[in-house]
Specification:
The chain is an alpha/beta fold. It has a single domain (about 10-175, about 240-275), classed as Alpha-Beta Barrel (TIM Barrel). The chain contains 12 helices and 11 strands. The strands form 2 sheets. Strands 1, 2, 3, 4, 5, 6, 9, 10 and 11 form a 9-stranded parallel beta sheet that branches. Strand 4 (about 65), helix 3 and strand 5 (about 90-95) form a beta-alpha-beta unit. Helix 5 crosses helix 6 and helix 7 crosses helix 10. The protein is globular. The protein starts with 8 loop residues before the first strand and ends with a helix. One of its GO terms (molecular function) is oxidoreductase activity. Keywords: Oxidoreductase. It comes from Actinomadura chokoriensis. Its EC number is 1.-.-.-.
C-alpha cells in the first residue's frame, strides 16, 4: 500500500457536526483530508457517508478510541471503506485519556496489544496513524503506524514530534482557530474550548513538557497558554499559525474552527491566505 497523500491542509471536526454537504464544500475549498473527531463509532458509518459524498478528499478518524471499539470491529470497517473508496480512508486510533475511561490502565501496553490485533486483522501499517503526544508513543507511531496525529498542541510540539518520529512518518497535528480580531471575545471562545483539557493529565503533562507551569494550567489557563494552543485573530494570523506547524515538520495541519456553527468562512479564509 502506497503512502496516502493528504495535502497540507485538513479539517478536524466532531463526527456529530459533519455531514455530506460540508464534506463536499471542504473538498471544493481544496482541503486534503477530513479528520473525524469525537470518538466516532466503530462501524464508521459517518466516514462512509463522507467518502460517498466526495471524490478525492481523504477521510480519517481522529480518533477511534481503543477503549470503546474492539480492534476487530474497526478493522472490518477499515477494510470495507478501503475497498469501496480506493484507499481514501485513513484509520486513526488512540488511547484517549484516563479520566474518561474507568478501565484505563497500562496505556502503552494497551496500545501495543491493540496494534497487534490490527496486524492480525490485516490492517496495514500504512493505513493507520496513532494519536501521540509524548516521546514514547511518538516513537511507537513511527514503528507501528504510518505516523502520528497529535491533538491540542503547538508548533513547538510539532518540532519535537518530528524529531521523535524521524523524517519519514506522517505528522498531522490539529490546530484550533478562532476567526475574530476582538482579542477578549476570541480568548473567551478559546478558553471555553480549552477548559476540559486543562483537567486531563495527559494534556497537562504535554503542556508542561513544553515549558508551561502549574500556574499556566490553573483557573482556566493563562493567556499565554491559551494563545499558544488556540490561534485567534484575522485570516493572516490563523494562516501564520498553520504555517508554523508546517515549517516545524508537519505534513498536514488539521484545522478545527471554534465559535462558529458554520466553519466554511474561516476555512475559506485560511485556504485563500495560504494559496
Amino acid at each position: 500500500m502506497d503512502k496516502i497523500e493528504l495535502g497540507r491542509l485538513g479539517i478536524w471536526r466532531p463526527w456529530s457536526m459533519l455531514d455530506a454537504e460540508l464534506a463536499k464544500d471542504v473538498e471544493d475549498l481544496g482541503y486534503g483530508a477530513i479528520w473525524i473527531g469525537g470518538s466516532p463509532r466503530g462501524d464508521l458509518k459517518i466516514a462512509e457517508r463522507l467518502l460517498g459524498a466526495t471524490d478525492r478528499i481523504v477521510v480519517a478518524t481522529g480518533i477511534v478510541n481503543m477503549w470503546a471499539t474492539p480492534a476487530e470491529e474497526v478493522a472490518a470497517s477499515y477494510h470495507r471503506l478501503h475497498d469501496a473508496h480506493g484507499g481514501r480512508f485513513l484509520l486513526g486510533v488512540g488511547i484517549g485519556h484516563p479520566e474518561a475511561t474507568r478501565e484505563y490502565r497500562s496505556p502503552y501496553e494497551t496500545i501495543v496489544r491493540y496494534l497487534d490485533r490490527l496486524d492480525e486483522a490485516d490492517v496495514p501499517v500504512e493505513g493507520r496513524v496513532l494519536a501521540a503526544l509524548g516521546p514514547k508513543v511518538l516513537r511507537l507511531a513511527a514503528e507501528r503506524a504510518a505516523g502520528a496525529h497529535p491533538y491540542f498542541t503547538t508548533p513547538e510540539h510539532t518540532r519535537e514530534a518530528r524529531a521523535a518520529l524521524g523524517a519519514g512518518p506522517l505528522l498531522v497535528p490539529d490546530q484550533k482557530v478562532v476567526l475574530d480580531t476582538d482579542t477578549g471575545r476570541a480568548r473567551a471562545v478559546a478558553r471555553e474550548a480549552a477548559e476540559r483539557y486543562l483537567g486531563l493529565r495527559n494534556y497537562v503533562n504535554s503542556f508542561k513538557r513544553l515549558g508551561f507551569t502549574d500556574a499556566d494550567v490553573a483557573d482556566g489557563g493563562s493567556d499565554a497558554l491559551v494563545d499558544a494552543l488556540i490561534a485567534h485573530g484575522d485570516a493572516a494570523a490563523l494562516a501564520a499559525r498553520v504555517s508554523g506547524h508546517l515549517d516545524a515538520g508537519a505534513d498536514q495541519v488539521a484545522v478545527q474552527v471554534l465559535g462558529e456553527d458554520d466553519p466554511r468562512p474561516a476555512l475559506r479564509a485560511i485556504a485563500e491566505t495560504l494559496a
